[in-house]
Amino acid sequence: MQNTATPTHCPYCALQCGMNLTPVPDGGVEVTERADFPVNRGALCGKGRTAPAVLSSSVRLTSPLVRSGGTLVPATWDEALDRIAEGLRRTRAEHGPDACGVFGGGGLTNEKAYTLGKFARVVLGTSQIDYNGRFCMSSAAAGGIKAFGLDRGLPFPLEDIPKTGCVILVGSNLAETMPPSLRFFTELKENGGTLIVVDPRRTKTADQADLHLMPRPGTDLALALGLLHLIVAEGRVDEAYVAERTAGWEDARAAAMAHWPEYVERITGVPVPRLREAVRMFCEPEAAMVLTARGPEQQSKGTDTVGAWINLCLATGRAGRPLSGYGCLTGQGNGQGGREHGQKADQLPGYRKLDDPAARRHVAEVWGVDPDALPGPGRSAYELLDALGQDIKSLLLMGSNPVVSAPRAAHIEERIKSLDFLAVCDVVLSETAALADVVLPVTQWAEETGTTTNLEGRVLLRRQAITPPESVRSDLEVLHELADRLGVEKGFPTDPEEVFEELRRASAGGPADYSGITYRRLAEENGVFWPCPTQDSDAHPGTPRLFLDRFATDDGRARFVPVSHRPSAEEPDDEYPVLLTTGRVVAQYQSGAQTRRVDELNAAAPGPFVELHPRLAARLGAAEGDPVAVVSRRGRAVAPARITTGIRPDTVFMPFHWPGEGRANTLTNPALDPTSRMPEFKTCAVRLETVEP
Ligand code: SF4
């Protein structure tokens, strides 16, 4: 590789900040500012700045490992690949194709996600594939499809945010999860706009708000209904817009009118005057937005909750109009693209539905297979993990660490241990990889080229900047080798651009149409927004803003979805009287598999903690730093107390990045949303206990 700067993107979150990478003489790589990318304009958070540390980490995997006599020992690539092929072949022969499971990740590039889905369905013939993005964005996706006929995280670019009049930010702590994005909200306020933050904690993001609403965890749906009730009662509905661009208003209106503000106050704990203030701030400007993130989405009623916030936008004429709309702030690096190209249990490339005969025919033709031979939809992520060792006997896992990140994690860990065979591709020995029969060391972001799609729907080119160690291979090479060993010699190229060319054809005509996007365009245009059906950039520049003329429904109208409040799957009771909510800290990412291996990040965020209000701490008899046990119906986690008035007195918070006794996901509830199959990470009932230091 050349010793010049390569413009590329961060490996972590959905902002996909631009950065330059320059190889340095000691064999490492240096991150420098890349000001030409409009999302971050050179700014990076600590995770992005230190990302190269994982490339040269002493704990990086550099040899395949196979289990021998109970321990993982180094092996050759041929030995390891043969062992995986044999494990999958044996499972298929003894138990049928659906006994082979595949689990992917929202950090995989579009090319990898596409190839993994094709591998599962064409090579293994299994329906049992899903990925960790199910735990991230599935409720927002389901809500968006119901209302707009299409799911793209943000239907407008981030640069629209400073120009709108008001943003309601629901359940997002972007000051910690994606810090460079905070400037869009700072600029909004500088331009005279207002920011309303909905969060049960006084987060760093809430500190920036003009109005901070602190509902009980699990009541965001009721909160949105209360606001819509007031909008109707105060005569603030945009009747002309509702008549012209929507359908289903009367039912949604009736549902909202059953949620009186005083009733909503009792459910949420948010006083009626604050609800009125929020309505005034949202309705007075000409344009406004609602943005949701994991807070309202990771609930057993996440899809309905998203629907309630979308209803708010539709009733006030704030969707499909300039500088207005509903959007979801996707979390993982390729959280958007990862859900579009086939690693999701119910989808084919181009965001096509797996149970749609026309979609099956189209994709099968691109793949050169019989459409009738393609399996149907499989289980969602938690259901798939819960079936391990039961009717799923072998698992191929890529880009995920469910031992830390799955809900009811101790149970899932036992399920993983009960597998006949587990193969994991990773860059470090994650907690899940440590349980595997075979571990394959794979290339990292800076060592390979590929595309991602950021939270705006902007497809980006991540370029290779350095040469990978000789002893590692790319995920695409792994899938090529396994396909070959399992009897499919063609159709699994190792060159990312070749894969992308096929993805373009497979996505053509689908909701997420990439057919006009090429590597050349991505390089020249600094990213292209999908849908983009035409290669000529003059003929089609991509689609930064969706729905301005019509929504993606048959009749072009958005759909109101009538929704009503319902309790969370677990409400506090005498035995478990406190609510637990979980989330992230700025210095760690997801399960921490990479960021926990970076000294600077570990120094900043060395371990989990239990955040609780002084009143709750006093009742418990805990002081700052005391170990506190948090106990749910699923297990027990222990971490030091962090006492703050910036959280509701009925709620405790734990970040979920760590394994071991402080693993927050030991506690979380896998109660699933009936539509999106999203687990209820964001709220469950717990009790607190003191622990002898
Ligand atoms: Fe990377 Fe996200 Fe940080 Fe940007 S905000 S540097 S994309 S982790």
Number of helical segments with 4 or more residues: 23
Helix content: 25-40%
- Unreliable stretches covering 5 or more consecutive residues: none
Rg estimate, integer Å: 24 Å
C-alpha geometry: globular
CATH class of the largest domain: Alpha Beta
Main sheet, how many strands, which sense, barrel? Answer: 7 strands, mixed
Bound molecules: iron/sulfur cluster
CATH topology of the largest domain: Rossmann fold
CATH architecture title of the largest domain:
3-Layer(aba) Sandwich
Find the count of extended strands (DSSP E, 2+ residues).
Answer: 30
Measured distance between first and last alpha carbons: 52 Å
List keywords for this structure.
693 residues; alpha/beta; N-terminal domain of TfIIb; Rossmann fold; Dimethylsulfoxide Reductase, domain 2; 4 domains; 6-stranded mixed beta sheet; 23 helices; 30 strands; 30% helix; binds iron/sulfur cluster; iron; iron-sulfur
Describe, in plain words, how this protein is organized in 3D:
A hairpin with a 3-residue loop joins strand 14 (347-348) and strand 15. This protein is an alpha/beta fold. The relative contact order is 0.16. The mean pLDDT is 96. The strands form eight sheets. A seven-stranded mixed beta sheet has the order 5-4-18-17-16-6-7, covered by helices on one side. It has a six-stranded mixed beta sheet with strand order 24-26-25-30-23-27. Strands 10-9-8-12-13 form a five-stranded parallel beta sheet, with helices on both faces. The chain is globular, with a radius of gyration of 24 Å. The chain folds into four domains: 6-55, N-terminal domain of TfIIb (Single Sheet), CATH 2.20.25; 65-134 and 334-512, 3-Layer(aba) Sandwich (Rossmann fold); 138-328, 3-Layer(aba) Sandwich (Dimethylsulfoxide Reductase, domain 2); 578-690, Barwin-like endoglucanases (Beta Barrel), CATH 2.40.40. The protein is built from 23 helices and 30 strands. Helix 8 (220-233) packs across helix 12 (272-283), helix 8 packs parallel to helix 14 and helix 15 packs antiparallel against helix 20 (496-507). The longest helix has 19 residues, at 77-95. Bound molecules: iron/sulfur cluster. Iron/sulfur cluster is lined by residues 10, 12-13, 15-17, 40, 44-45, 47-48, 178-180. The site of iron/sulfur cluster has 14 residues, from helix 1.
